[in-house]
Design goal:
With 200 residues, the chain is mostly helical. The protein is built from 6 helices and 3 strands, in the order αααβββααα. It has one domain. This is Exosortase/archaeosortase family protein.
Length: 200
């Protein structure tokens, strides 16, 4: 009896040292969850409504990137990238399926949802989306540059097939997986820091 009583006395000061400990945040109400879902859908819809503009911007950036690397004297026209090859102009079109626009919808929708329910701050959600977007755009630019390089190396048809099916798929897969991991890490690190502040 005495040993048990003494152990309970020794434990009590631990809790007494944390008078400023904050209670855990309550669960959001159903109404707020519904509104957060609508915010997420709205954010995703905003991205989806501008997919063609995003593809056009990627084509413009790809032409500048390819030209800067010295792969070809590339030019862009809306969502098409053209460059000289074997005394003729060839190129490719950045379609909606080849653009990063569709890949941006899930992280934007999720970040907007978590921000609205109070799980992440506005700044944290903005940083996560911005970093993910930059990484996805950079990966896609590398893939498009690989298409141009492959065409110049193996010819138009064979180079396009090898780069689009094999090389491009590997680059895209690695980029999407890396972006998803980084997005989750940035979100969870922000929540971990806030939870640590609540405990200390």
């Amino acid at each position: 009896m005495t040993g048990t009583h003494l152990r309970s006395i020794h434990r009590s000061p631990v809790a007494a040292r944390r008078p400023n400990a904050r209670p855990p945040a309550g669960r959001p109400s159903r109404l707020r969850l519904v509104l957060a879902a609508l915010v997420g859908v709205g954010a995703a819809g905003a991205v989806a409504a501008n997919l063609r503009w995003i593809a056009g911007g990627e084509a413009w950036l790809s032409a500048r990137f390819v030209d800067g690397l010295g792969l070809a004297e590339a030019r862009s026209s809306y969502s098409t990238v053209i460059f000289p090859l074997d005394e003729r102009w060839v190129g490719f079109m950045v379609t909606l399926g080849c653009s990063v626009g569709l890949l941006l919808i899930p992280p934007v929708a999720l970040a907007a949802f978590l921000m609205f329910v109070g799980r992440v701050s506005v700044s944290r959600a903005t940083v996560c989306c911005a970093v993910t977007a930059v990484l996805l755009v950079a990966v896609n630019q590398l893939r498009l540059a690989a298409v141009v390089g492959s065409m110049r190396l193996w010819g138009f048809e064979q180079g396009y097939e090898r780069s689009h099916v094999l090389i491009g798929s590997v680059i895209t897969t690695l980029g999407v997986v890396g972006s998803a991991i980084l997005f989750v890490v940035l979100l969870t690190r922000g929540r971990a820091v806030r939870n640590a502040d609540h405990v200390t």
